[in-house]
Amino acid sequence: xxxxxxxxxxxxxxxxxxxxxxxxxxxxxxxxxxLYKSSFIGRPLSSSAFVQMVQDIRSAMPDMEVVVEECIAExxxxxxxxxxxxxxxxxALGYPPSDKxxxxxxxxFWTLAxxxxxxxxxxxxxxxxxxxxxxxxxxxxxxxxLP
Length: 147
Description:
- The chain is 33% helix and 33% strand.
- By secondary structure, the protein is an alpha+beta fold.
- The chain has a five-stranded mixed β-sheet.
- The protein starts with a helix and ends with a helix.
- The model has no long low-confidence stretch (mean pLDDT 90).
- It comes from Aquipseudomonas alcaligenes (strain ATCC 14909 / DSM 50342 / CCUG 1425 / JCM 20561 / NBRC 14159 / NCIMB 9945 / NCTC 10367 / 1577).
- This is Ester cyclase.
- One of its GO terms (biological process) is polyketide metabolic process.
C-alpha cells in the first residue's frame, strides 16, 4: 500500500467513524488485533469497545465534526493532526453538558498492516484546553510537575 493510499484510508476511517457514524463500515477496516489507545481512556480498547466509545461520544455531541488539519505517512505509520468541533449536549466521559461550541486539538498515530487494515490508533487530545473551554479547573504544566 502506498503512502498516499494509507493516508486516504486513515481519512476515510475518520470520516466514517467520527463524522458520519458509519461504524460497521469503519470496523471492517480494523485488523483482528486492533487496539485504540487515548489520553482520555485509561486502558486500550478493542475494535468493538472503540465502536461503542465513538457511539457514546457521537450521542453526546451530535453536531460533532472532525477536521483533519495535517496527515503524514512514513513506513507503516500515519500521523494526523485534527480538530474536533462540537457541543456536548449530554454528559460524556465524565464531562458535563455545555452550550459552548468546543474546539479540541488531537494528534493520532496510526499503525497499518501491509493490506491496509488498521492495527492501532493512539490518540492524544489537548485536554487542558478542553477543560478550560468547559470552564473547569486547569493547572499549568509547571505547577503539575512541581512537588
